[in-house]
Predict the 3D structure of the following.
Amino acid sequence: MVAIIDYDAGNIKSVEKAFQFLGRQVTVTRNPQEIYRADHVVLPGVGSFGDAMRKLDEYGLTEVIHEVTSQEIPFLGICMGLQLLFDRSDESDGVKGLGILRGEILKIPAEQGLKVPQIGWNSLQYPSRGRLFRQVPENSFVYFVHSFYLRAQNPDIVKATAEYGVKVDASVEDGNIFACQFHPEKSSDIGMQILTNFLEV
């Protein structure tokens, strides 16, 4: 069973539908016992970093996420779910992230000809190919919606990058923890392959 963590964030329904399309049983829940029983756990979401952390704390999910990731259950953060795994974000000064992975979330600089937020397709490069990208060719296009980007402290965990005025750490992998700044559930066949690869971990 795939457990999708429900903390009142946007975009949960499309993630649920993507896993159902792949034939998996899915539960959208904030019940700790249901999350612990899952064989794969997903933290999706769009919205504000500060609001998201407040919701996770309010629903008692911060401790649950730390527990799940320490138990080595395959865990996937998507978009805001990636950002929350790290230490802090320019979006919400003074708000601590989950701190499960080291790094910070920075504002995409406004440059001539580049719109912020980035909304649309961008290609991926692989500093070192991670398990999510098996059978996904380098330079494949995936769908982004974001105004902030990850700068990971440890470059060894970065498995995919994209260019948008700056180098965006687009996907990370550290043991059982995976995360994507882009939206695999909105990235057509490439995205479905990425989610399939996650389910096979």
Summary: The first helix runs from residue 12 to 21.
